[in-house]
Amino acid sequence: MAKTILIVDDSASMRQLVRISLASAGHTIIEACDGQDALAKLTGQKVNLIISDVNMPKLDGIGLVKALKARAEYRFTPIMMLTTESEQSKKAEGQAAGAKAWMVKPFQPQQLLAAVEKLVG
Amino acid sequence: MASLTLRPSAADTPACLCLAGDLTIFEARDTHAALLELLAENPGPWALDLSALGELDSAGLQLLLALGKQLGGANTPLQVLAVSSEAAALIELLRPTGLLLDLQSVCAG
Amino acid sequence: MLDAEQWQQLLQGFLEEANDLLREAEDCLLVLERSPTDSEAINALFRSVHTLKGSAGIFSLEPLVALAHHLENRLMQVRDGECALDDALTSLMLQCMDELNVMVRSIDPHTATLAPHTPRQAELLAALEAFTSSAPHAAQGPAVWQLALRLDAELLRNGFDPCAFIRYLARLGDILAVDTLTDALPALEQMDPEQCYLGFDITLSTEASRETLEEVFSLADGFYHLTLTCQTAPDDAPATASLRPATQTLAPTPASDEPRVVHTASSLVKVAAHKLDELINLVGELVISTAGAHMQAMQTGDSECIERVQAVHQHVEQIRERALKLRMVEIGETFNRFHRVVRDVSLTLNKQIQLHLHGGDTELDKTLTDRIADPLIHLVRNAIDHGIESAEERLAVGKPAQGNLSLSAGHDSGMIVLEIQDDGRGLNTARIREKAIARGMLDADSLLPDSDIHMLIFEAGFSTAEQVSNLSGRGVGMDVVRSAIDELRGTIEIESEPGKGCIFRIRLPLTLAIIDGFLVGAGADRFVIPLDMVTECMEAPATINGPLNLRGKPLPCIDLTTHFALGVPTTSRRNIVVVSQARQQVGLIVDRLLGELQTVIKPLGQLFRHLNGISGSTILGSGQVALILDIASLFRDLQQRNDTKHRPSAAIPNLSGEQTCNGSAI
């Protein structure tokens, strides 16, 4: 079933990859270029999944997770963090903040699709 | 939260609980509270009308199963009179013993 | 959403990648046919198909994904030693590759759409399916797994929905039963509706491996406990036991193979061909403008300036060389396709043929490799069809039953030489002559040397096939081969020995973009002659009557001034440039010799595309336009005039013809 998915990443090409991969499966994609932008774009509408980069300007992924957990309408929204091998140390911090699903970049589009299906399919 | 309406029993049919809207982890807490209030007024038996139900997830299903257990005990399944396609898909997949899907009526949309 | 241009770029990338992947897959399959246990090839094949499937998924190319998926499944069994790769399966897989190729080609490049499933695809899918059931080692059916899934109380609050995971499991196989465990569910009043009390026992029938099943839940790491037991395994053996030995034998290969592949991938940059073309075009302009600057500097006589310009010139030279090398690819990739061609053709004709490839590392311009592939395929088909005899025929004349066909590539004096050699019966000169006479291409009494008769097979509408076989009935004649090679500024020659075999030799320029030329003047115009064809220059005698005698051999001449109707010669002291091609020589009479130059070929506009004798143009440093002579077509002109004039009197075959062409026709 088509879901609404928010992708937060400061890299336009990464957003593009995610968008193409997921749009092909019929999902609706909302894009934000950092945590602040994401919070601004989340204005109460239903979002089934949030996919976020960790390292971003203004408000990073972990800050975003903390902010989301404090907002009732998004407190249970599944969040999947995209991370690079070198950011593994951030994982514990992110999980403590409430982001439990992690995916290591780079990934194949079908891996991403599979992950989305497992989380919200 | 999902809106709850309890249609009182008529003749020898049980009261019918209509659930409308989504029933997910987001609505679970409020719906749970509303159910407890309704139960205080009408202890059952109930049947379920899920034909207006939107999204249903594990938390929502778990709540329905807990309701069934409450109403009929562990061995009496809660009868589902009508079901929306989305809810039907999940119930079909998991076939929980606590819910009895009347297949004849499972054509509501 | 993606804008149209980005989408186009992605799709373009996919289409290119898909072609590469399919070619690679086909190569692997052919390697496997010869050495079925080559685990490296199996792995590479599997990877190609897998990657193709993945990329096709992005564009929702359902039929492509479906076929690739089934192919991949079969390959997985081959890889895991559960299914033997025999001839029948190889053939089937090659057919699937063909179909995948067809599908990739039929993808609409604008909408990224593909026609829905065709009967052909259904047939292949069914055949792939059937293969599993009939093959003795392919008894790998789905296994039945028992999954005991216990969940953490905090699972739901963390955004995980176990139902979503189970739905995903349903995609991997058939869920035979789910037991939703509610034992831990407290009474309604006591329950925390956001806490997870449920558990699931799932019975799943699937072909997926244990790893795949474990992977399904891994995203919710730390929030579940999964116990996996396999209830039935194929061949009544525990799945783990049947899979492990196979994986172990293959294990070392991926380990040693993977890093290398990764390395190659990361050290390559894919660039769109048109970008390279733009670069090379600009480099060409740079070469020209440097020549202009050099000329100007020489005129000023400022030695400082000349020195600087020369330094620039040197660097431009280096850039030019490097830029041209960017377009160079090894011909090996093109050659490898011939394993398939030879395999198919020899199967169809029931001939045993061994293909030998030499010089696959020879580099040539990408455009050339692309455009020479079809003519080569035609020549190879022709060699197998007409050249190489059947096994009985071969044995009868004392040859080994297996025919040999060799393809080789190499460099020769600035040209690429490609040879297609077979050890068959050679060209049947008498028969070609007969056919040519019957078709009115040749006079019955003409005395052409054998080599010239052989060249007649390249004339339009000529065919020597005793009967139109399956292969030659394609409506493509050797004349198409000839014109394709002409277009590439190449030449073709035949060396045939009756009973021993035949060699087709193709010569091609290294690149189509730049030419080393010899600049000459005729009238007020400038012409460029490809330098590698120039053998010598000499002063022309005051009057030319008949062919010249060049060291005892007759030399036919073409006067460029008259040939192109450029008016009267501007000088009385004229020169002859002797050009040669495939052992033929001709003298070009010109007004002035202006020396060597290297120049960029500008294709002729549409209007002049069919201009005879001119293959392109270039702009000189001075800004003047020079025309590049198409020597091959001048030779053909000469030949034709020769033939027409030649027929009535066959007395002195070589000389009289040339006399005519020199005296009047040209």
The major β-sheet of chain C equals:
5 strands, mixed
**The CATH topology of the largest domain in chain C is what?**
Heat Shock Protein 90
Low-confidence stretches of chain A: none
Just give the CATH class of chain A.
Answer: Alpha Beta
State the strand order across the main sheet of chain C. 6-8-9-11-10
User: How far apart are the first and last residues' alpha carbons of chain A, in Å?
Assistant: 7 Å
- Rg value of chain A: 13 Å
Domain Response regulatory (chain A): 4-120
Modified residues (4-aspartylphosphate) (chain A): 53
InterPro entries (chain A): Bact_response_regulator, CheY-like_superfamily, Sig_transdc_resp-reg_receiver
Keywords (chain A): Phosphoprotein
Tags for this model:
heterotrimer; A: 121 residues; alpha/beta; Rossmann fold; five-stranded parallel sheet; 5 helices; 5 strands; 40% helix; globular; B: 109 residues; Transcription Regulator spoIIAA; five-stranded mixed sheet; 31% strand; disordered C terminus
List the helices and strands and how they pair.
The complex is a heterotrimer of chains A (121), B (109) and C (666).
Chain A: E1 4-8, H1 12-23, E2 28-32, H2 35-41, E3 49-53, H3 61-69, E4 79-84, H4 89-97, E5 101-105, H5 109-120
Parallel strand pairs in A: 1-2, 1-3, 3-4, 4-5
Chain B: E1 3-7, E2 15-23, H1 25-41, E3 46-56, H2 58-72, E4 78-83, H3 85-94, E5 99-101
Parallel strand pairs in B: 2-3, 3-4, 4-5
Antiparallel strand pairs in B: 1-2
Chain C: H1 4-34, H2 39-58, H3 62-79, H4 87-105, H5 119-134, E1 143-151, H6 162-172, E2 173-181, E3 199-206, H7 210-217, E4 224-232, H8 239-250, H9 252-266, H10 273-300, H11 303-326, E5 328-330, H12 332-349, E6 353-358, E7 363-365, H13 366-387, H14 391-396, E8 403-412, E9 415-422, H15 429-438, H16 450-455, H17 478-487, E10 491-497, E11 501-509, E12 514-522, E13 525-530, E14 534-539, E15 548-550, E16 553-555, E17 557-559, H18 560-563, E18 575-581, E19 584-590, E20 592-600, E21 614-619, E22 625-629, H19 631-646, H20 653-665
Parallel strand pairs in C: 6-8, 13-22, 17-19
Antiparallel strand pairs in C: 1-3, 1-4, 2-3, 5-7, 8-9, 9-11, 10-11, 12-13, 12-20, 14-18, 15-16, 18-19, 21-22
Helix pairs in contact in C: 1-2, 1-4, 1-12, 2-3, 3-4, 3-5, 4-5, 10-11, 12-13, 13-17, 19-20
